[in-house]
Amino acid sequence: MRILGIDPGYERVGVAVLEKKNAPQEVLIFSDCIQTSKKLSHEKRLLIIGTKLSEIIKKYKPDAVAIEKLFFNVNQKTALNVAEARGVLLYSVSLDQIPVQEYTPLQIKVAITGYGRADKKQMLTMIEKLVEIKKEISTDDEYDAIACALTAYAYKGANKKFST
Amino acid sequence: MRILGIDPGYERVGVAVLEKKNAPQEVLIFSDCIQTSKKLSHEKRLLIIGTKLSEIIKKYKPDAVAIEKLFFNVNQKTALNVAEARGVLLYSVSLDQIPVQEYTPLQIKVAITGYGRADKKQMLTMIEKLVEIKKEISTDDEYDAIACALTAYAYKGANKKFST
Predict the structure, then answer these.
(1) Which of A94, B4, B7, B128 is the most buried if burial means most Cβ atoms within 10 Å?
(2) What angle do CA B151, B156, B157 make, to 5 degrees?
């Protein structure tokens, strides 16, 4: 089973494709950080986010998608932009009829470390134990996307179904 | 010049296609309210919003799109859902490479009535003077979409360019 994890954002979207084989570890097949320049118009930035995700879905054909849920942050303008980008990401996934599951940051931390207040370092340590990573990862967004995909495996193992 | 006005929403999206001919009034070509049922999953609702808008764009081939800007409201969950839907709407427009312009509720009220605190009744009275409407309109969302499209004509007349 191949899962695409997404860490939604407006300037930066983390994406990671993981595969569960018979080995104890999940394997990282692909990861990237989709970035959109501040110089572009709002609608161009959304267009890049949607079309790049569609390309990744087409290339890696995930069986399911796991995406992080949004919470409000202090900057309301940022929150709305990220929500608009997240809508585009969900729409691109739905156009390809791939089942999608959403997880809160708390659910992700608990799934990876067993501890809801885990810090970034604790998360990284566990991710590197849980996943076979043979490529270089240059952004936190990619690690966040991997963590989200791992959470989907954890929930799947616990017989929680994906919505379709 | 044909303009598609959009009043963004999650449960209800108002859409209206107006055409400017040589007559003093703009003509309403089409209007509708895209509705999504609460019984559907979040991603299905976004899928309906995007695919219905794409169908309307394909059928009516607008030269430009005018969409209302979002403001935060008291219900943060609602605001995020509407923002996600708005992202899908902007993405669908951008996929078809149609120039889009965004207007605040204040800009729309001023453009239609000359008064930033105009109420719903004042808006309706002016819309019915400004636009030739031969069909029955059943929702406020459609009137809001018409008002947004009218604002684009007003700005266009004032030589404000559409972004592309």
Answers:
(1) B4
(2) 100
Which residues form the domain of A66? 2-159
3-state helix vs strand vs coil in chain B, percent to 5: 45, 25, 30
Total number of residues shown for chain A: 164
Structure confidence by residue, pLDDT tens digits, A81-140: 999 999 999 999 999 999 999 999 999 999 999 999 999 999 999 999 999 999 999 999
ipTM for this prediction? 0.89
Nearest in space to B130 (alpha carbons), one of B32, B22, B14, B27? B27
Chain B residues in contact with chain A using a Cβ-Cβ cutoff of 8 Å:
41-44, 46-47, 50-51, 70, 72, 76, 79-80, 83-88, 90-91, 93-95, 100, 102, 163
Contact A43 B76 (CB under 8 A): no
> E strands within chain B?
2-7, 12-20, 26-35, 64-68, 100-103, 131-132
With respect to residue A164, please indicate whether it lies within any of the assigned structural domains. no
Do B146 and B30 touch, CB atoms closer than 8 A?
no
